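re: that chain from earlier
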Amino acid sequence: MLFAFSTTVLFSFSAVFATRSIRVLGSLRANFARLLVACALLGLYAHTRGHGV
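^ sequence. v structure.
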């Protein structure tokens, strides 16, 4: 139940932060910035905790 609740909360935060970033940056820049952050976090995870193929 804890995981379902945390998923719901994080999903709602995602919608709020997406709306705010679109208002500040515009839709194209906001989506590009989110893509860059996601790639950076995944790359960091892959280089620190990933075991490779």
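The mean pLDDT is 92.
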